[in-house]
Amino acid sequence: MAGQRSREPGELEAEVLRVLRCFDGSVGAREIQARFAEPRPASTTILTILERLRAKGLVEREELSPRKIRFAAVHSVEEHATEAMLGVLEGVDDRRAVLLRFAGNLDDADVAFLRDALATKRK
After folding, report:
1. Cα(30)–Cα(28) distance, integer angstroms
2. What does the pLDDT read at residue 45?
3. Which positions ≥6 away from 122 have C-beta within 8 Å?
4. How far apart are CA 22 and CA 36, in angstroms?
């Protein structure tokens, strides 16, 4: 049915970015669209989402010709998550409280991994 939303707000942007990060290098909107299950978003919708992501600094646009435009993610998932976490820490007064709350939500395997990583960093 036209006009009825099938995704939550921001969900399509997240999905386009996830798909874009699956590619090595830049790709066109149709290549991204082909990775979606049915019903696929229209190619114009994909282009609109890519332009929104570009405006947010998450995607780079490469115009090879007026009809051949390619896009690439600026950061990997890991880089983006790191920047987001550091951004949160910079924006709070009690950094230690945030770190403690975060660490308290980690499972045992993550805690062990971080301990090992920190011990290696200190050497």
Report:
1. 5
2. 94
3. none
4. 12
